Amino acid sequence: MGFVSFAGRVFFASVFLLAAYQEFSEFGVDGGLAAKALWPKYNLFMKHVSSHIGIVVPHVEMKHVIASTIFLKGFGGLLFIFGSSIGAYLLLLYQAFITPVVYDFYNYDIEKPEFVQLFSKFAQNLALLGALLFFVGMKNSIPRWQPKKVPKSKNKLN
Questions:
Q1: Closest Cα to residue 8, out of 83, 74, 85?
Q2: pTM here?
Q3: Which residue ranges traverse the bilayer (predicted)?
């Protein structure tokens, strides 16, 4: 059972590790293709957030955002392979940040084909988020140590 669990964590984390490797190899000076693709969606998301909250969000360099997502995916994926709940929390943080920004199906009309594509990707990322939450829940439900039970003696002196 230990090997099967390890293999499952490797396959699950490979999604994040391969994506982090691809973004790292394309990073360049300006953040690469990921920064160019994320920039308009990030700006639109921040406009939505600032209009609903009423607070102006400070300017963030997109290459720093991409570098942090590469770190979260890469380091979180490696820690997740070895069964660390910290790795799962890092991947949860990445998923919670990137899913509503990148897969912004809420900006499209239901009849448009972009809506269906973005919504299906959004649902897939929610499934990954659910799997991570399941992993964290299972890690927290198993006690780390159990106190040793002292056997009662069977001899009765009185």
A1: 83
A2: 0.81
A3: 78-98, 118-138
**pLDDT tens per residue, range 104-156:** 888 888 888 889 899 999 999 999 999 999 999 988 887 766 667 777 767 66
Three-class DSSP labels, the chain: CHHHHHHHHHHHHHHHHHHHHHHHHCCCCCCHHHHHHHHHHHHHHHHHHHHHHCCCCCCCCHHHHHHHHHHHHHHHHHHHHCCCHHHHHHHHHHHHHHHHHHCCHHHCCCCCHHHHHHHHHHHHHHHHHHHHHHHHHHHHHCCCCCCCCCCCCCCCCC
In whole angstroms, give the CA distance from residue 21 to residue 9: 18
C-alpha distances in Å from residue 105, one per residue of 62, 65, 82, 129, 130: 21, 21, 34, 18, 19
pLDDT tens per residue, range 53-62: 888 878 888 8
